[in-house]
Specification:
10% strand; binds flavin mononucleotide; globular; 298 residues
């Protein structure tokens, strides 16, 4: 049984993936509507949708080195994402031995205010927009760019995996790449030819994601279905056991999970319920790079 669900909730619907009728809460869109899109063969014929739906993070890589043309094409495709201000730069490392998962390529996607401030100086302007707004918009620019790179890579046969720890190691990364002030490393992305081919990981049911016209009141069944789809999907792949990724409990909480029932919702609860209770460390990392979210720019 999936932990966090009652017995009846867990057994009610023994095949979450085969459910035919997921009526979206408070909306007119049903799974049947979506199935009918699939039935006319959009997915079968559309390579872009196939590539998107086949996404899976890759954590084992072959020795093959991606060509210079592939690297440049991937970053160029990333650049063509929509942008607010093109507020990013991408740093590349090819020092495979030093990379997580020994991936041939390591991209560091940075929020970059430095470049446009140089342009503003040339045009005799001074930046007055506050760093909070700049960051919220710039992060969107960078994220859209990075995901375009993931999809472009995949279309060329390359796998990838994001690494989220950059935020807390921003000072070390800045030193390594000689980043100027007003450049902040947001996330890293390893890439190379896959030496594994896992199944795509689950996502929430569409009814837990797409709300038409108004945000619905999420009832117990909807929440259970969403948890079940995620937890069963990761358990089926033995995902956390393979990665040895169980997060320890803090503050005298007693461990009752094994890898037989430890899955996605418990994993994310342990992150969001235990990590980083104070923002000081991140604010300090930002300030070292010249970004001031909680006060005016110095
Ligand atoms: C911002 C971000 C940070 C991530 N950090 C890590 C990480 O540090 N290590 C890792 O192995 N995967 C990391 N991932 C990958 C996620 O674990 C993965 O995307 C998620 O489990 C869904 O699986 P899928 O990408 O295979 O569909 C990260 C993904 C994102 C978007």
């Amino acid at each position: 049984m999936i932990r966090g669900l009652s017995t009846s909730q867990a057994t009610n619907d023994s095949n979450a993936f085969a459910r035919k009728k997921l009526k979206c809460a408070d909306s007119n869109i049903t799974q049947e509507d979506l199935d009918s899109i699939w039935d006319v063969g959009i997915v079968k014929k559309n390579r872009v949708i196939q590539t998107l739906l086949a996404h899976k993070s890759i954590r084992q890589y072959t020795d093959e080195i991606p060509s210079e043309e592939a690297v440049k094409t991937i970053v160029r495709a990333g650049q063509q994402a929509p942008f607010a201000y093109q507020y990013y730069s991408v740093l590349l490392s090819r020092k495979r031995e030093q990379h997580p998962y020994k991936a041939p390529l390591l991209f560091t996607i940075c929020l970059d205010s430095h470049k446009f401030e140089l342009i503003m100086t040339r045009r005799r302007w001074r930046l007055v927009m506050n760093d909070l707004a700049l960051m919220l918009l710039g992060i969107q620019d960078a994220a859209l760019m990075a995901e375009n790179m993931v999809v472009a890579g995949r279309s060329l046969g390359l796998g990838s995996c994001f690494l989220g720890s950059a935020l807390w190691r921003a000072d070390k990364i800045a030193e390594k790449y000689d980043l100027p002030q007003r450049v902040f490393p947001l996330v890293q992305l390893v890439m190379g030819y896959p030496a594994e081919d896992p199944q795509p990981r689950p996502r929430y049911p569409l009814e837990f994601t797409l709300f038409e016209d108004k945000y619905p009141k999420l009832n117990e069944n909807t929440i259970s279905d969403a948890m079940k789809q995620m937890d069963e999907g990761y358990l089926t792949q033995d995902y956390y056991r393979r990665l040895k990724a169980k997060i320890s409990l803090q503050a005298n909480r007693k461990e009752t999970f094994t890898y037989d029932d430890y899955s996605w919702t418990e994993h994310i609860c342990r992150k969001l319920g235990q990590w980083d209770p104070k923002p000081d460390e991140l604010l300090k990392q930002l300030e070292k790079r010249g970004f001031y979210l909680a006060s005016a720019r110095h």
